[in-house]
Design brief:
It contains 22 helices and 11 strands. A 3-stranded antiparallel beta sheet has the order 5-8-9. A two-stranded antiparallel ribbon has the order 1-4. The N terminus is likely disordered. It has 505 residues and is mainly alpha-helical.
Length: 505
Amino acid sequence: MKLTLTGIFIWLSLSFFAQRTNPHQPQPGQVPNPEAFINTVEQSLYYFYNDYIDNNNYDSVIKALNYEPNQVPYFSDEVYCQRLAKMNEKTSFHLDCNPISLSTIRFFAAQRRGFAKIVLGRSALYFDMFQEKLTEHGLPIELRFLAVIESGLRPQVKSRAGALGLWQFMYKTGLYMGLEENTYVDDRMDPEKATEAACKYLKQLFNIYNDWNLALAAYNAGPGNVNRAIKRSGNKTTYWEVRPYLPAETQGYVPNFIAAAYLLTYHAEHNIVPMTAKVHNAHLDTLCLRDGLHFMTISKMANWEIEDIKELNPIYKTAFIPKSEKGRCLTGPLEKINLLAGVEDSLYKLEKSLYAPQPIVQPTAIQVVPQDTLNVSPEGVVKDSTAKTPQYEVVHVVKSRENLKSVALKYNVTIDQIMEWNKLRSTGIWVGQKLKVYTNEAPPVVEIAPRQTPPPVTKKYYSVRSGDTFHKIADRNNVTIAQLQKLNPGININRLTVGQQIRIK
């Protein structure tokens, strides 16, 4: 429940940027510029509302406080400071109660409350795992709020600078922390791997500064910027002393973190209405695969929507899980993973039947290659069958106005299959492109006619008449000007004479 207020923190930052006439707005300079969070909010809001729209469940604690549904409570600075002091007793962070942090808290608590409701739903998917990882590394569990600031708890969120994932790693920093990226996977979007990397990186930063607020500033701006700010400050040792010398975005980073930590802890007191979690971490399990698999295969076997597979496995950049020596893993609801684990051999057979047809030999006509049919029961078990399903390889030449969808419909296959068979990295195709397609509908057999000697090439000429131009001659003989020029390389097309012979064939 405490997680809900995390979202308030992010969305409220955007609110400050957009609503400069709000009566609750802090004085200039008190609340940091939130531009760095706008991209995160823009990307995450769409997904959040798609997940939780029309869900109006209230938290039981809020009900117990007898708040009206739309009531926005206000508290004195003394109450805020007392609550922060109580939080400081349980954490190694310095959640300072000063005009800057108070202004940020007041503004976030008064504006953009809806985003906070949605973050609670997402936090149920990640916060238990965050706390486990942070505890393993001996780090304060309050660092879980950092992922809310960075990504809004959306692994797919990408910053304008290119940072990606729950913890917003840049590409080079991700590589440095052991996060892999290739055509098929990006570990920055893997919740567990990215969280493990974030824990290691945050520990390194704390060991440099021995102060969590400065470590957070370095996480945002990089150690180089923080070191320069420390030097310009006269080698001060605390964040608040160094803060005026930091980049503008980083000056707001720690106040935002403090506001998030406070609101997440006291969301019920602020009448924040949490959404029901769509998926909870405790309801998930993992199956590590010994071979490559397409999402379509998994979907057919387990009656599991492809979009839901993608949602819980953001590490995969395409709808394919590649084979790996270390083993690639699939995350999903307990019932889906248990089903797949029980029929794993059948899962690979189905994958082979869908995506790995036998090589086809083509002498003078297309040859039929029989292949065993795999019948899938309602429980997802592949059963042997004596029935045979012929498969044919067809080379489709893309025509004008065709796209992958129309080609897939023509041959009764999927877009993903066509992309896999032709190793396409996008759905864009062009006229004249040749696409390999496997289909169960037999194409017409091509009869090979006996080879014949082509007739000798004959030349045809045109005699220029009065008033003729190269353009008129081309039109009259159904050829283009370019073809006409190619046939008459030594002729000046701007100086034709009556009776001149122009080759037209």
